[in-house]
């Protein structure tokens, strides 16, 4: 009996890993576009019916979170606003909007890679997915390929910080050269007034996607 | 001083009423399509930049709540995922998804017509719009044209219940006629097994839109 259970568990874990890998692939597409790497897939009857990644800056729309894009795709594909026989895989714990959309769409099962301590709404700040006051609660499976999902985000923000530093160094150097040519030296406290690279001020906050 | 304040207050109330009337107009379009009557407008610099109504059944998409449609439109119009200088007018207190979208879009002010005791997420079940744990809180103005907004919903659900009863009566009558022709009488407990009118089972739940 224990052996059979073990085998079933292993099989399920393997399946979760398989779909989370697809969500990670999506997240990497976001990173390639300088967007916070968050990916999502929705699975139904063993098939991926929707996959997408965070495109908030590219689309200039708050609705372009990976989960919302996937839910829209899945509704279109199933011709139904209820996604009652679907499982959602997400690389990062959802925000309040996406958690709300999951409950509204009645998605019964959500598999999460990495948790988001500062802004996650599936247990970190609040657990919108499992509030008894609402007419739907989702089963939650956390930590699937959690290290990979976390590392992907940490790497992205570390790169962003490095780019930011480099940008400041370049701007300062350029300013010094201009001052040199003019025969003046900038005060040590002076900061270059150049604009920050597009997108950086928002993306540097992991809690806000 | 008091007089000036009074005047400013009256002017603001008049403005709120004006925009809420537009949201009510939208809600009535939903009712005309047999959708739960919920309407929304987004105002920026004294202009309506987005207006829409609940179209969840028509569009077969959970994302077709009035607020989400409006937020999508407003982002498109402003070319920005942040709606930081907008006011949203909604005839009914938002659900968890729409309240989440408002916070994510950083809408600073939300004006609500009628509250939704069973499922509202701007104070009734939970107040997602004003959680100190998140990086944005919205100012809330409640009860603007509240009676009109409430009556509109009550009327819609009363009509729906009446239609449902009439549908059952018609189905029962039809069944009796068939039985009569066959020379049998249906048992008193027998219920016609006809399908309920489309959309009714969902729409009869005001808390779920």
Ordered list of secondary-structure elements with their pairings:
Two copies of one chain form a homodimer.
Chain A: H1 2-32, E1 39-44, E2 47-53, H2 56-59, H3 66-78, E3 86-92, H4 96-104, E4 109-114, E5 139-141, H5 146-182, H6 200-203
Parallel strand pairs in A: 3-4, 4-5
Antiparallel strand pairs in A: 1-2, 1-3
Question: What distinguishing features does this structure have?
Answer:
homodimer; 209 residues; alpha/beta; 5-stranded mixed sheet; 6 helices; 5 strands; 14% strand; elongated; disordered C terminus
Can you put this structure into words, describing what you see?
With 209 residues, the first copy, chain A, is α/β, with parallel strands linked by helices. In chain A, 47% of the residues lie in helices and 14% in strands. The first copy, chain A, contains six helices and five strands. A five-stranded mixed sheet of chain A has the order 2-1-3-4-5. In chain A, strand 3, helix 4 (96-104) and strand 4 form a beta-alpha-beta unit. The longest helix of chain A is centred in the last third of the chain and has 37 residues, at 146-182. The first copy, chain A, is elongated and about 80 Å long. Residues 190-208 of chain A have low confidence and may be disordered. The interface between A and B is large, with 41 and 41 residues.
**Main sheet record of chain A:** 5 strands, mixed
Mean pLDDT of chain A: 89
Q: Tell me how many strands of chain A there are.
A: 5
**Amount of helix of chain A:** 40-55%
Taking all Cα atoms into account, the compactness measure Rg of chain A is 21 Å
Helices and strands of chain A: which structural class?
alpha/beta
């Amino acid at each position: 009996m224990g052996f059979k259970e073990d085998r079933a568990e292993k099989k399920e874990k393997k399946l979760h890993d398989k779909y989370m890998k697809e969500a990670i692939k999506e997240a990497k597409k976001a990173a390639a576009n300088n967007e916070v790497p968050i990916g999502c897939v929705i699975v139904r009857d063993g098939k991926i019916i929707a996959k997408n990644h965070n495109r908030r800056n590219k689309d200039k729309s708050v609705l372009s979170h990976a989960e919302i894009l996937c839910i829209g795709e899945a509704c279109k594909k199933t011709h139904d606003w209820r996604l009652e026989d679907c499982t959602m895989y997400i690389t990062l714990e959802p925000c309040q909007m996406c958690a709300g959309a999951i409950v509204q769409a009645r998605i019964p099962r959500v598999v999460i890679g990495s948790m988001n301590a500062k802004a996650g709404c599936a247990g970190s700040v609040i657990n919108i997915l499992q509030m008894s006051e609402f007419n739907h609660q989702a089963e939650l499976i956390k930590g699937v390929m959690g290290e990979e999902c976390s590392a992907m985000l940490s790497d992205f923000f570390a790169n962003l910080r490095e780019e930011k530093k480099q940008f400041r160094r370049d701007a300062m150097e350029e300013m010094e050269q201009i001052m040199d040519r003019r025969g003046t030296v900038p005060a040590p406290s002076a900061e270059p007034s150049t604009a920050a690279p597009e997108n950086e001020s928002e993306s540097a906050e992991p809690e806000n996607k």
